[in-house]
Design brief:
By secondary structure, the protein is of the alpha+beta class. The protein is built from four helices and 13 strands.
């Protein structure tokens, strides 16, 4: 494999040992630097920031409480981000979600997640934004837009009834 150096040494009896190969492999696997992303490879420096960069938006509930949302890296999230800033009156549904029809359709790639998690921000169909504030099993299909980073206080902030929710990029 690239990035792993096979070293050998000769002991007192004259036998050659290839000891560093396994150590190098174990180290490379442990730190994730196997192949072309080995330390010192210029492509590693280019790849690392891209993997770490996530677009973040803010969800502002009732004009006061702010929750960071990490957006997915997909066409739906990018199209939604292009609509921002946006403030929407979102009614409650089933005591676990806020939803609203968006002014225009977004690209979709719907999947059945099986379990909806507190803080999921998804698209139902092609034009219904949904913010989930409780975890529950679901057989419905959604396209992922993002996820609230820290959900502590989200249930209380969204609570029952309609909420005015703003969305803005960081």
């Amino acid at each position: 494999m690239k990035g792993i150096v096979l070293c050998s040494s000769i002991d007192r009896s004259g036998r050659r040992w290839r000891h560093a190969a396994w150590l190098g492999l174990a180290t490379a696997l442990a730190i994730g630097s196997v192949g072309s992303l080995a330390a010192g490879d210029p492509r590693r420096e280019q790849a690392a920031p891209a993997a770490q960069e996530k677009t973040r938006m803010w969800m502002i509930i009732g004009g006061a409480q702010r929750f960071a949302v990490t957006l997915e890296d997909n066409p739906t999230a990018r199209a939604f981000a292009q609509m921002l800033p946006l403030t929407l009156d979102m009614p409650d549904l089933n005591d676990n979600e806020k939803h609203v029809r968006l002014p225009r359709s977004l690209p979709t790639n719907a999947v059945r997640p099986g379990t909806i998690r507190t803080g999921d921000v998804m698209l139902y169909g092609s034009d219904t934004l949904v913010v989930f504030y409780k975890t529950f099993p679901s057989s419905y299909s959604y396209t992922r837009i993002g996820r609230v980073t820290q959900v502590h206080g989200l249930v209380e902030a969204l609570g029952p009834g309609s909420q005015r929710i703003g969305f803005a990029l960081d």
